[in-house]
Structures are given as structure tokens and as C-alpha cells.
Design a protein that fits this description.
Elements: H1 6-23, E1 27-28, E2 34-41, E3 47-54, E4 57-64, E5 75-79, E6 85-91, E7 97-104, E8 107-115, E9 122-129, E10 132-140, E11 146-153, E12 156-157, E13 159-164, E14 170-177, E15 180-181, E16 183-188, E17 195-202, E18 205-214, E19 217-222
Antiparallel strand pairs: 1-2, 2-3, 3-4, 4-5, 5-6, 6-7, 7-8, 8-9, 9-10, 10-11, 11-12, 11-13, 13-14, 14-15, 14-16, 16-17, 17-18, 18-19
């Protein structure tokens, strides 16, 4: 058979493969629920997601893609059998890891890990309950040393809050209760780590006598002017990819 005779056969074979593949995807069961392998596409023909449904329920692995780039998935969800929970991983457009953790429905749950731009170095560890920060919270420099160590309760800072300089020493040591500064607060020189100021907060307001230090020695005291300090956000809006 001449080579040119192969062309129509090849075209027919490709059309058959495309039609066969389409026939195997995007089906509904007798109740009108999605069932089997599904694939959805953006208007620009790039794939939007692919995954498997079991009578309307997501099962196994789902991959989601950006409309701008289909080389790498932007989100991968691995659903746990018989539940609404899934192990979720977010990626940048170049395929580098951004964050990962557990989701129940649309809410983050348990420990979540976030990464610096290299996709390898840990940037933060956060703990969630019902989609709110709840439990230990830590952030890190690229070196791996901590920048912040705190605790959240129902989305609000609660308990010890410590902030670290890049050299490793503490330069802010506070205590929060229900999102407000309460208790002893100590400030240190960010470069040297020496104490500079110490005093007490009550509901974000300075009270009592505050002490000022130089070279580690007490040099003066003052009474607060009742001004509130700058408020720290009490519910971190992390990147929801």
C-alpha cells in the first residue's frame, strides 16, 4: 500500500481515539449525578480539572489547572474514601510547592505547611480548626530559624507570642488573650538582643509602670499615656489557592 493511502487511515484512527476517550468521560448515573472519569476545560481549551466521581462523590485524585498554564497542576486533591476530607497540595505556575494540608469541605483543618518561593524551604506552620487558626503557629526565615512563634484560639492570638531577629534572639515577647495584648510585654534591641523596654498591657492598653533600659541596665521609668499600640492582625488571611 502506498504511503499516501495511510493518511486517511491515520486520521480515522485518531478520530476514533478522541471519540472513544470522550465517550469514557463526563457521564452521569441514572440519578443525574456525575459518575466515572470527568474532565472540564476552560474556554481557551486548556484543561480545568480531571478526576473521578462515584455517583456524584469525588473519589481518588483530582488535578486542577490554571487557565494560563496546563503544564503543571495548580492544585492536587486526594479524597479520602467515604468522607468530605482531602489531602490538598497547592503549586505555583512553575510547579513549585506552595502549601499542603488537610481540607474538610472548603475549610482547612489540622496542620498546614507553607513554603518559600524555592518550593522546598518551610515558611510557616499553621494549625486550623473549622477553617480558623487554632493552635500552634510558627513562621521561619529562609535559613530555617523562627521569625514568629505564637498560638491561636478560634482565629485570635491567645497565649505566648514571640518574635525573633534573623540572628536568632527574641526582640518581642508578648502575651495575648482573645486577640488582645494582656500581661507582661518585653522589647529587646533587634540587633543586639539587649532588653530595651518592659511593662504590662491590659486589653491592648499600657498600664502600671514601664521600665526603660540601656545596655541592659534600668535607666528610667514612666507611666503610660493610655495610647493603644498598633494592632496585629488576629486572623491571618493566608493564601487560599
Amino acid at each position: 500500500m502506498k504511503a499516501k493511502n495511510y493518511i486517511p487511515i491515520l486520521v480515522l484512527a485518531l478520530l476514533f481515539c478522541v471519540n472513544f476517550t470522550f465517550a469514557q468521560t463526563n457521564k452521569f448515573d441514572s440519578n443525574g449525578k456525575r459518575h466515572g472519569v470527568w474532565k472540564k476545560y476552560y474556554k481557551n481549551k486548556r484543561i480545568r480539572y480531571s478526576g473521578t466521581f462515584d455517583h456524584g462523590k469525588e473519589v481518588g485524585t483530582f488535578k486542577f489547572y490554571s487557565a494560563a498554564n496546563s503544564d503543571f497542576p495548580s492544585v492536587i486533591k486526594v479524597y479520602k474514601n467515604g468522607s468530605d476530607s482531602a489531602d490538598v497540595t497547592f503549586y505555583a505556575l512553575d510547579g513549585k510547592l506552595e502549601s499542603k494540608g488537610l481540607m474538610i469541605g472548603k475549610n482547612r483543618e489540622g496542620k498546614w505547611l507553607y513554603y518559600h518561593e524555592d518550593g522546598k524551604t518551610l515558611m510557616s506552620e499553621e494549625t486550623y480548626k473549622n477553617g480558623k487558626l487554632h493552635g500552634p503557629y510558627k513562621t521561619f526565615y529562609n535559613s530555617g530559624k523562627p521569625t514568629e512563634v505564637a498560638n491561636y484560639l478560634n482565629g485570635l492570638l491567645d497565649g505566648s507570642y514571640k518574635k525573633y531577629a534573623i540572628k536568632g534572639h527574641i526582640y518581642q515577647d508578648f502575651t495575648y488573650k482573645q486577640g488582645k495584648l494582656n500581661g507582661l510585654a518585653t522589647y529587646y534591641n533587634r540587633k543586639t538582643g539587649e532588653i530595651t523596654t518592659k511593662g504590662t498591657f491590659r486589653d491592648d492598653v499600657r498600664i502600671g509602670t514601664w521600665e526603660n533600659y540601656a545596655d541592659g541596665e534600668l535607666v528610667s521609668t514612666e507611666q503610660p499615656n493610655k495610647k493603644k499600640p498598633p494592632r496585629k492582625k488576629t486572623n491571618k488571611n493566608t493564601k487560599k489557592q
